[in-house]
Write a structure and sequence with these properties.
301 residues; alpha/beta; Rossmann fold; 10 helices; 11 strands; globular; binds S-adenosylmethionine
Length: 301
């Protein structure tokens, strides 16, 4: 794994929505928790390859994320590898009272904590039971009880259509889920006018990532920009494991439009002058010259 969470990736057209087990009840008609629950169980028994691999990978690595998670629960909202404060890059509104929010791939849960502290009622799903154990423990420690922690795949969420006002992923579904599948699911979950915000690796950082998976990211064009999609890191030279996804910027935009999202804002994150060292897959010097991370802010039409 690369730093913050960030292995860098490519689309597997065979792992899309159509390739998954078909829901016995059309998603627009199924609002029954019981049938959704048993459906989720059925899905867990036949997880797509990338979801099964990422579950193994994150369950095995969760111990390393306890201390960073504890720190993030204590602090004010700040985003990504370079910890850009929410005051400078406001991905969360200061006041979220009355909003129902979902975090897709919540990890240790600090983004969910930041949302509940702003007044939102939160549903937080993660594929790793070990990561969720940390999240649950920290929510008890911090006495935040309006977060529902759910073990499952963010590509198939057992919640009714249109049941959320706001959806977010910081290096969760944003990079570990198949784009067409999870963004279609996020669209289904949001009410019309609802917002999806996600943050992950910039495709340029992936293009500059050596094909043998060695680190750090270089200043050479190591792989094809147009052929990004699914990145399988199981045989990587450094930090092997996990399967991620990313795409060219035009492919992201085409996907959003096809699914029914309008782009509110696209941010290419630049590391601040004060940044030093190599906290993740790219050096601070690299990220001061090129965008290492991207943020999409979308609105459901
Ligand atoms: C790096 S954490 C993201 C959480 C946090 N924002 C962070 O940056 O540390 C990545 C999380 O995505 C989760 N994840 C990966 N694939 C997922 C899936 N299909 N559904 C839900 N969560 C998933 C992993 O289990 C892991 O906890």
């Amino acid at each position: 794994m690369r730093g913050h969470c960030a292995r860098l990736t490519r689309t597997d057209s065979s792992a899309g929505w159509a390739a998954q087990v078909a829901c016995p009840i059309a998603s627009s008609q199924c609002h029954c928790e019981l049938s959704r629950g048993s459906y989720a169980q059925q899905m867990n028994e036949s997880l797509p390859e990338h979801v099964a691999e990422n579950r193994r990978y994150w369950d095995g690595m969760a111990d390393e994320w306890v201390a960073p998670g504890e720190r993030a629960w204590e602090q004010e909202a700040a985003w990504g590898e370079w910890q850009i404060p929410n005051t400078e890059m406001p991905l969360l509104a200061d006041d979220m009272h009355g909003l129902r929010a979902i975090e897709l791939g919540c990890g240790t849960g600090y983004v969910s904590a930041w949302m509940q502290r702003r007044g939102a009622s939160v549903y937080a799903i993660d594929n790793s039971a070990a990561q969720l154990a940390t999240a649950r423990r920290l929510s008890e420690l911090h006495r935040l009880d309006d977060i529902e922690w759910v073990h499952g795949n963010a590509e198939q969420v057992a919640q009714p259509d249109g049941s959320f006002d706001f959806a977010i992923s910081e290096y969760g579904a944003a990079i570990w889920c198949e784009p067409a599948t999870w963004i279609t699911e996020a669209h289904r979950l949001l009410r019309p006018g609802g917002e999806l915000v996600f943050l992950g690796n910039h495709p340029l950082a992936i293009v500059c990532s050596p094909v043998d998976g060695s680190l750090p990211v270089t200043e050479r064009l190591e792989r094809s920009y147009f052929d990004l999609g699914r990145l399988d890191w199981r045989d990587a030279v450094d930090e092997p494991g996990g399967i991620e996804f990313n795409m060219s910027i035009s492919s992201w935009m085409r996907l959003f439009n096809e699914i029914g999202f309008d782009v509110i804002e696209y941010i290419e994150i630049r590391a601040p002058e004060s940044a030093t060292g190599t906290p993740g897959p790219v050096t601070a010097d690299w990220a001061k010259r090129f965008p290492s991370e991207q943020v999409w802010r979308l609105r459901k039409r």
